[in-house]
């Protein structure tokens, strides 16, 4: 049976309120996922949770096995994925503690295993990526935010950098010139792999700091101050969006 999954990142390595029923297999043809995907119940529905950085938040963005993570979700019967991502804000309309559902992205990462079409399973496909995120999932997240009276930016471009270090001020100026509104380290290849597997995937981005050179204070103190505020809003949105996404998946199956 198809189900909805949440990939939790920085600030959401565990999912408060999620009742774990079963740890699913983390083993895939691409090696082990960051952690066992957890099947459980929340908000009155079945859902799956995967901690992107592994148990105890120990796997850095550039060494996450994204292929295994997405594969493990697919083999667990997942159809729809909401990816939670902490980001640094470049655009003035995304202050720390604020949320966005990005519409597009630019991939600045390098050296990550970023495709299943590498000859291993014999099939070469050039998936379309004009719209990297599922509009259906985006709309459901935005609708849920509106219903919960939570301010959220309806779009924006996510720049995905290699990490694990933060960016220099000049790198952020370049991202800004390129049209990026926010910056994170895990959005790719995650979104591209989800597309290759035919998963409906969208990102719920949580601004946790002003990107390098945009704000004044110390970035880590800013993250410490704003992350809980943002994650509280994320949970309120998921509480409405996930049951709706799940109902939609069930409708499509029947
Ligand atoms: N840069 C990159 N990734 C991030 C940031 C940032 O400033 N904040 C949270 N994730």
Quick tags:
254 residues, alpha/beta, Rossmann fold, two-stranded antiparallel ribbon, 12 strands, binds hypoxanthine
Can you walk me through this structure?
The protein is of the alpha/beta class. It has one domain (4-253): Rossmann fold (3-Layer(aba) Sandwich), CATH 3.40.50.1580. It is 31% helix and 25% strand. The protein is built from 5 helices and 12 strands. The strands form 2 sheets. Strands 1, 2, 5, 6, 7, 8, 9, 10, 11 and 12 form a 10-stranded mixed β-sheet that branches. Helix 2 (135-147) packs across helix 5 (219-253). The longest helix is centred in the last third of the chain and has 35 residues, at 219-253. It is globular. The mean pLDDT is 95. Residues 86-88, 161, 166-167, 183-185, 208-209, 211 line the site of hypoxanthine (HPA).
Describe how the helices and strands are arranged.
Blueprint: E1 3-8, E2 19-23, E3 27-28, E4 31-32, E5 38-42, E6 45-51, H1 66-75, E7 78-89, E8 99-100, E9 104-107, H2 135-147, E10 157-160, H3 169-178, E11 182-184, H4 187-196, E12 200-210, H5 219-253
Parallel strand pairs: 1-6, 1-7, 7-12, 9-10, 10-11
Antiparallel strand pairs: 2-5, 3-4, 5-6, 7-11, 8-12
Helix pairs in contact: 2-5
The structure holds hypoxanthine (HPA).
Provide a brief overview of the structure.
With 254 residues, this protein is of the alpha/beta class. The chain contains five helices and twelve strands.
Class computed from helices, strands and strand pairing = alpha/beta
Bound molecules: hypoxanthine
Summarize the helix and strand pattern as letters: EEEEEEHEEEHEHEHEH
- Beta strand %: 15-25%
Tell me, what is the CATH class? Alpha Beta
Mean pLDDT: 95
Number of domains: 1
């Amino acid at each position: 049976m198809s189900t909805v999954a949440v990939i939790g990142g920085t600030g959401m390595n565990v999912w408060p309120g999620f009742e774990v029923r079963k740890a699913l297999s983390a083993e895939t043809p691409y090696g082990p996922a960051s952690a066992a995907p957890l099947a459980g119940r929340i908000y009155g529905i079945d859902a799956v949770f995967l901690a992107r950085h592994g148990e105890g938040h120990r796997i850095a963005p550039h060494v996450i096995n994204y292929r295994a993570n997405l594969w493990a979700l697919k083999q667990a019967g997942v159809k729809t994925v909401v990816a939670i991502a902490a980001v640094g804000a470049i655009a003035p309309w995304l202050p720390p503690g604020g949320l966005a559902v990005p519409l597009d992205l630019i991939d600045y990462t390098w050296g990550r295993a970023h495709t299943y079409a590498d000859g291993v399973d014999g099939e070469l496909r050039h998936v379309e990526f004009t719209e990297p995120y599922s509009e259906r999932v985006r709309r459901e997240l935005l609708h849920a935010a509106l219903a919960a009276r939570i301010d959220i930016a309806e779009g924006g471009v996510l720049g995905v950098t290699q990490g694990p270090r933060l960016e220099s001020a000049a790198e952020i100026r370049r991202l800004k010139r390129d049209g990026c509104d926010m910056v994170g380290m895990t959005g790719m290849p995650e979104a591209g792999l989800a597309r290759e597997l035919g998963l409906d995937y969208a990102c719920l981005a949580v601004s946790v700091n002003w990107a390098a050179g945009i704000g004044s204070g110390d970035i880590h103190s800013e993250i410490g101050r704003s992350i809980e505020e943002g994650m509280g809003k994320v949970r309120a949105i998921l509480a409405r969006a996930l049951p709706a996404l799940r109902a939609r998946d069930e409708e499509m199956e029947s």
